[in-house]
Amino acid sequence: MSNKRNLAGVLLLAVLMGVTGFVLLRDQPLGSLLEILHRVDGRYVLLGLGLMLVFVGCEAMCTRLILGRLGHRTPYRRCLCYSFVGFYVSSITPSATGGQPAQIYYMSRDGVPAAHGALNMMLIAICYQITVLLYALCAWLFLPALRQGMGGGLGLLLLYGAAVMGALTAGMLSFLCFPHLAGRLAGGVLDLLNRVHIIRDRAGAGEKLARQMEEYAAGAGILRRNPALLPMLLGLNALQLTAVFSVPYVVYRAFGLSGTGPALFLGTQALVTLAVSSLPLPGAVGPAEGGFVAAFAPIFGAGLVTPAMLVSRGISFYAFLIISGAVALAFHLMGRKAGTERSLLHSDRKYGTMSTT
User: Fold this and answer.
1) Is the per-residue pLDDT at 144 higher than 70?
2) For the chain, the helix, strand and coil percentages under 3-state DSSP, each to the nearest 5
3) DSSP H or E segment with residue 180
4) CA 83, CA 355: separation in Å to the nearest integer?
5) Which of 141, 197, 202, 292 is 20 to 30 A off residue 285, Cα-Cα?
6) What is the Cα–Cα distance from 148 to 214, expressed in whole angstroms?
7) Distance between CA atoms of 114 and 279, rounded to whole angstroms?
8) Is residue 354's pLDDT more than 50?
9) Sequence-distant (≥ 6) Cβ neighbours of residue 25 within 8 angstroms
């Protein structure tokens, strides 16, 4: 990603943070807010950050498994770096999948072909979306108290998020399981869009579709040859989401509260995530905070829900954005240093050979 686009993303994120802070904190007296936050048990904050490490670590393990099936013996620590890069770039770009091209770039820098990197990210995205939808569906079915609190604007967001993610997941699965039928349907859609002048370069769009179809065909082939891979990926995604969805419960305990079990927190956060994750905003900043306040108000109470939101989002997004940014920067600089050393070594060998002739 270019430096200008990176800077634009950071500026947009800063603006969204400022507007969100003003809207949510304008009626919250600063003195009482600081007094409440002072009571937070720091040990639970560290536990929450540990859960975020599990979140990133699970994606890294998915990457290692997939790349291993593709013939790449990628060290787990490298896969961790890819995941940190993905978290950081996704957080500063207006797309939940904005970090995928960056991860593919760094994989390619380490010798993984771009096609294999794209295939890895596609399989992870499919499994992640399936797991989010299943988690939210279970919460909706088995936690009836949640349904009563999902009205108004949050309910509309939930409907939008479920429709968008459901359509994307169904489309990706159809390409994976029924590539020929899906390819013909997609070609028909491109023809229609070309006729109404939404797509002007039909040939170029067709080439992109063909390349995408090749990736889906390769993904289907991997899953057929490795029948245990899909259950492992889904299991890791379930652990990944359970870790991040547990952060509000950890915050609940950090405030010294008890009496409500973790299931309600997991289900509530699953529905909030589904509601806001498809919005084209960096880190879903704004809707994520507002959704938390609306959904968790019955659990934390009106007086504590805003401080709880600050701590929860501070752990699961803002603090981890800084951590992932630092890791991504170090990883980038290490790669540049290694590239420079390889260039110098190549130059030394070249001129050393010339001097002996």
Assistant:
1) yes
2) 85, 0, 15
3) helix 179-195
4) 45
5) 141
6) 45
7) 27
8) no
9) 33, 306
The one-letter amino acid at 74:
T
Predicted model pTM:
0.86
What is the reported pLDDT for 3?
A: 63
Q: 269, 319, 334, 335: which is closest to 91 by C-alpha?
A: 319
Q: How far apart are CA 13 and CA 23, in angstroms?
A: 15
| Per-residue tokens: 95 | 């797309």
**Which one-letter DSSP state was computed for residue 255?**
T
Closest CA to 146 of 263, 258, 239: 263
Angstrom distances, CA of residue 133 to CA of 97, 240, 283, 352: 17, 14, 19, 60
Token pair belonging to 75? 């060290």
CA–CA separation, 331 and 326 (whole Å): 9
Q: Which amino acid is at 64?
A: R
Looking at residues 311-329, what average pLDDT do you find? 94
Give the max Cα distance, the chain.
83
Separation CA 277–CA 292 (nearest Å): 13
Q: Report the C-alpha dihedral over residues 287, 288, 294, 295, rounded to 10 degrees.
A: 140
Mean pLDDT rounded to a whole number for the chain: 86
H or E element at residue 148: helix 144-148
Residue 243: C-alpha distances to residues 57, 165, 282 (Å) = 11, 21, 21
Which residue bears the tokens 């998020």? 161
